């Protein structure tokens, strides 16, 4: 499969930043060769490389099209956790086509409010790896106030009622908690606003629980078969 690059179209040309320029060099693309570029918003461009510089490169659009992909109309709300595990979950959420990723800060979490560039780069690289042209929206909060509709939101927690397929399909926001669980105060707030669901007696790591539910929702939502 051809490598996919990222950039924004302007006047028929696209400037590739230092990360994409490094990618060009790693895979040994030369000037005048053709590559595929996405804008992260659904467009796929076939481009000819005009210039490969030290920190940026320029390509000219030869052909463009809208790429049709399976995007889940869902928001995954992730408690900020240790970087390696958070990055892994972000990558899987991108691969499965989540529409929005929301990282919030619970009491037992760390702030990623100043790491937007780093987080967006993870999303970009994950999307390129699986040839996705629609990047999920990223929201990073430094608090516990989730901008989601309570009636369409469920929280994964072992104290909740068993999650069933018939119930899951009516929700479009999923909240996964921190590694060390919510505090009692946080749990009371969540219970007062959202539905809590359990995945059974097995205690999953937060990223495993999220992956399991995203897989379920992937098969419950199939936009490609609509219309």
UniProtKB/TrEMBL annotation:
Protein's GO biological process: rRNA base methylation
Keyword rRNA processing found: yes
GO MF terms held by the record: rRNA (uridine-N3-)-methyltransferase activity
EC class (word): transferase
Pfam families: Methyltrans_RNA (PF04452), PUA_4 (PF20260)
Domain Ribosomal RNA small subunit methyltransferase E methyltransferase: 71-217
InterPro entries: Alpha/beta_knot_MTases, PUA-like_sf, RsmE, RsmE_MTase_dom, RsmE_PUA-like, tRNA_m1G_MTases_N
Domain Ribosomal RNA small subunit methyltransferase E PUA-like: 16-61
GO cellular component terms listed in the entry, alphabetical order: cytoplasm
Keywords per UniProt: Cytoplasm, Methyltransferase, rRNA processing, S-adenosyl-L-methionine, Transferase
EC number(s) given by UniProt: 2.1.1.193
Annotated localization: Cytoplasm
Family per record: Belongs to the RNA methyltransferase RsmE family.
Function noted in UniProt: Specifically methylates the N3 position of the uracil ring of uridine 1498 (m3U1498) in 16S rRNA. Acts on the fully assembled 30S ribosomal subunit.
Name recorded for this polypeptide: Ribosomal RNA small subunit methyltransferase E
């Amino acid at each position: 499969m051809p490598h996919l690059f990222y950039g924004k179209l302007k006047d028929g040309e696209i400037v590739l930043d230092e990360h994409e320029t490094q990618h060009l060099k790693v895979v040994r693309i030369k000037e005048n060769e053709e590559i595929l570029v996405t804008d992260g918003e659904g467009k796929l461009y076939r481009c000819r490389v005009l210039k490969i510089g030290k920190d940026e490169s320029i390509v000219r659009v030869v052909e463009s099209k809208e790429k049709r992909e399976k995007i889940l109309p869902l928001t995954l709300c992730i408690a900020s956790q240790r970087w390696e595990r958070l990055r892994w979950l972000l990558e899987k959420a991108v691969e499965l086509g989540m529409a929005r990723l929301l990282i919030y800060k619970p009491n037992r979490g760390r702030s990623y409010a100043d790491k937007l560039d780093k987080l967006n780069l993870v999303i970009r690289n994950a999307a390129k790896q699986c040839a996705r042209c629609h990047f999920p929206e990223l929201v990073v909060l430094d608090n516990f106030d989730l901008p989601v509709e309570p009636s369409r939101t469920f929280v994964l927690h072992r104290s909740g009622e068993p999650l069933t397929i018939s119930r899951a399909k009516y929700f479009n926001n999923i909240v996964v908690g921190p590694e060390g669980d919510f505090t009692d105060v946080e749990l009371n707030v969540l219970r007062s606003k959202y539905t809590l669901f359990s995945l059974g007696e097995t205690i999953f790591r937060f990223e495993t629980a999220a992956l399991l539910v995203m897989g379920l929702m992937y098969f419950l939502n199939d936009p490609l078969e609509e219309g």
